[in-house]
Amino acid sequence: MTHEAILVAHGSPADPFSQEAAMKALAVRVAMWLPGWRIRGATLAQAGALEAAVSQLTAPLIYPFFMAEGWFTRTNLPRRLAEAGGGALVQLLPFGTDPALIGLMASAAKRAAATNGILLAAHGSKVSKTSSETTYAMVESLLQLGFAPVKAGFVEEAPFLADVARELPNVTCLPFFALRAGHVVQDIPEALEAAGFQGQTLPPIGEDIGVAQLIAAALLRFEDHKSTP
């Protein structure tokens, strides 16, 4: 039996091609940890990309490369899959909710020598609490690991990133994002500059070197659980 999976991210409507390329590259890296698997990467923003990936595979697992559950993972992605003829496909929990992610976050902070504290730059939402709840759960996990202070600042809800950055001008900023899209390349730098932030800003956690292995492990766990009597 051939195992299959599609890694799906939101992507960037303003620049769909670079994000699509990033997801295809991530799929290649995940496949290196899963010999014999067929892995595809796609974004919702790139027209026809998800549909093409579904058509290339038989019954792939769907891995949402999102930071939290929300409208896109609960409503939009299932609808798009159904329209592509993959309505019965199994969808895993999003990347940002994986308990193993705290290990990558801690490792990234340690590599950056973030002994002065951490500012989690996150998306947030004006309509859903799941984004902030996932972020605050990560804040609590980092605090339990001994990092301090650790606070979250959001792009789309209070407390806004610029306001929190003014309180913590010299800590390490770690973007709690999957891809290097508009919020990471524009909104976060602008907010930090407006706040006079002097600390180090790391790449988004979705670019961490350990992400491919984390995703591979999540896919394997699901298959192992499914095959267990």
Q: What is the CATH fold-level name of the largest domain?
A: Rossmann fold
The radius of gyration is: 18 Å
What portion of residues is helical? 40-55%
Cα end-to-end separation: 18 Å
Main-sheet strand order equals: 2-1-3
The helix/strand class is alpha/beta
The biggest beta sheet, please? 3 strands, parallel
Word description of this protein:
The protein has helices spanning 16-32, 49-56, 71-83, 101-111, 130-144, 161-167, 182-195, 211-227, and strands at 4-9, 38-43, 61-64, 118-122, 150-154, 172-175. The protein is α/β, with parallel strands linked by helices and 229 residues long. The chain has two domains: 4-96 and 209-227, Rossmann fold (3-Layer(aba) Sandwich); 101-207, Rossmann fold, CATH 3.40.50. A three-stranded parallel β-sheet has the order 2-1-3. α1 packs across α8.
SSE order and pairing:
Elements: E1 4-9, H1 16-32, E2 38-43, H2 49-56, E3 61-64, H3 71-83, H4 101-111, E4 118-122, H5 130-144, E5 150-154, H6 161-167, E6 172-175, H7 182-195, H8 211-227
Parallel strand pairs: 1-2, 1-3, 4-5, 4-6
